[in-house]
Amino acid sequence: MALEGFETFSFTHEGATRTVYRRGRGPGVVVIHEIPGITPQVEEFARRVSDAGFTVYLPHLFGVPGKPISTGYILGQVARACISREFAVLAKHQASPITDWLRALCRHAHAECGGRGVGALGMCLTGNFAIALMVDDSVMAPVLSQPSLPFPVSRAHRAALHISDDALAVAKRRAGEGCPILGLRFTADPACPPERFATLRREFGAQFEAIEIDSGPGNPHGIKRGAHSVLTTDLVDTDGHPTRAALTRVLEFFRERLVPGAGS
Questions:
Q1: What is the reported pTM?
Q2: Range of the domain at 164
């Protein structure tokens, strides 16, 4: 199923070929979709990024592009991810193998678009991928939206970052050299527990910028306790709403990091 207004191309790395949707002009931003796939909400987010002056690369990793979200669709794709060799959903200190392919796509986007580098945004199941992608120097604007791996099945899993110790050391070095990280979550989201952001603060210090949106009981914006997807399904596109502010900050972050002169 084609996404209207997007070009498509096949990208191959180490024998693995996937379809990538591309739209816009300007610095490259790789948007890595959430479970269950490239839903209409994910597509709309990608359009917002491209309309803000960026070339969006939206790889198709699982699901059916354009298919509306539903509970059955989500559960089916979670089950597929759990048995896939490309996703290591319980690994605490190892990134999913698919991040190798995604790093190659980031290099490709940088080669096509030029400039300082590319943005890389993961969400939900792919949220922590942006840290693993920082191993490649092409990635200059990593964003973690509700990073949900590893699945928080234990105390250790709740605090883990889904990245190897060696890759984490490289990411910390790059952060210290001026490649900060932006993270987003709802405070009551069980899939992205507070311990995970505490680890990010401990490991990256001032180079980790956290946006944590109150979704607890009695919160001032009436955000439901089950809210999870900050930039897509649970986005409220209204002035003054914290999810709109989070979206605005993500776009500002990309400009600061990728557009010459914008962050000076």
A1: 0.96
A2: 8-258
